[in-house]
Amino acid sequence: MDWINLLLLPVLRSVALIVVLLTGFAYLTWYERKLLARFQVRIGPNRAGPYGLLQPIADAVKAVFKEEIVPNMADKAVYMLAPALALIPALIIWAVIPVAKGVPAIADVNIGFLWILAIAGIESYGIILAGWSSNNNYSLLGALRSSAQMISYELPLGVFLVSILMLAGGFSLVSLVETPRAWWEWIWLWLMFPLFFICILAETNRSPFDLPETENELVAGFQTEYGGIKFALFFMAEYINMITTSAIMATLFFGGYRLPFGLLGDVIWLGPFVLAAKVIILLFLFIWVRASVGRPRYDQLMQFNWKFLLPVALGYMIITTLLTVFLK
Amino acid sequence: MAIDYLPLLIVLIVAALFAAIALVVPALLGPHRANKQKLEPYESGIIPFSDARRRFPVKFYLVAMLFILFDIEVIFLYPWAGVLRDLRDNYSIWLALAPMGFFLFVLIVGLLYEWKKGALDWK
User: Do the Cβ atoms of B122 and A69 come within 8 Å?
Assistant: First the structure.
């Protein structure tokens, strides 16, 4: 009996998680293409299946049957490893996110915050190794930009997380969602949400912060030399990161799997659907920003982080400390 | 307990297995018709005349150094933020605030110093 609980159940849950995330990824690409098309007054994919719904499957089949190419100047082992290193962290961050009342995706550990921070830190490895191993000027420049940008924006993100942690009073995300919050706490949290979202955009290399892969100067940035399934894995990592960070934001800012005002609080199976709905709304935000906002220059990007976001995050944290100590 | 963390290890292994399968299987399925031109690094059609791993601007190095500095400081904030309310309730407000206040003071002075020195400028 014991080994079922200890090994079999987590394995099954992990497989289920990965299957759900991959399906989510496939349909996120469809969702994005459809939405971008609407923003640009086009129709978008509509040939494969009704409303183009089979398009992601066609894309996947194409990626799987592409020729395998390793450029002759590349460092072969690192070149092959990099896509995996980009994808794995994107998949495993989900382990600590609660999907229903008292039910985390994989494990309820009391280090939820630290897990997210640590795994998000590993994410930049896949990108920098991809850029370095390809031995291509575009790739190397893209990877340098990307890693500098990711580590820079990790700082304000980390400081914001400290503030949320203070309000939550514990490292577990499962208990964070269940902890009741005062109305001023919600307002105070939501004030920070736009800045947090900007950090997330930069962390996931999404437009308008997609400077690592600016087509007009760096071709495709760190993934220039990648094709077929290895490109698809980077693509997967980026989109699953979008889903993951949306789920994290939904959990931290918008009550995760709970409906507002505790509606239907005891219907446990509703949790995943509510979370999914919130994630879809936040993903819409990602795509909306992509369709509307132009890219900044790279120096503007870095200065915005170091001279605006970081001081603001520190100030926000200090005020949150005082609020927590004197008000709660 | 340590056993609580076992599922995290399991999800890591399953994810790694998935990534390995995704890398290996298409390599066997796809065609293999490589030639010299195909395997050259892409440089907009020009034959690359040097290794790409050359020296790059020191700015990136500076950013990495600043990052390590501040990231370690942020790491120090985490345990403190987790027990802040506990400290206030069971000890005193000043024990909760004073040490971290001093720490943050040093941190902010450091940030201002870097700002003044121009380390935060990207040029």
Answer: no
Arch. (CATH architecture) of B2-117: Up-down Bundle (1.20)
Task: Determine which of B14, B44, B103, B121 to mutate to test the interface with A (most A C-beta atoms within 10 Å).
Answer: B14
B82-106 confidence digits (pLDDT tens): 777 777 777 777 777 888 888 888 8
Tens of pLDDT, residues B2-38: 777 788 888 888 888 888 888 888 878 877 777 777 7
Nearest to B7 among A106, A113, A154 (CB): A106
Closest CA to A12 of A310, B31, A20, A32: A20
How many structural domains is chain A composed of?
1
B25 touches chain A (CB under 8 A): yes
Q: What is the ipTM of this complex?
A: 0.81
Parent domain of A270: 68-327
Could A73 and B96 be called an inter-chain contact, meaning their C-beta atoms sit closer than 8 Å?
Answer: no
Closest CA relative to residue A79, chosen from A214, A184, A225, A271:
A225
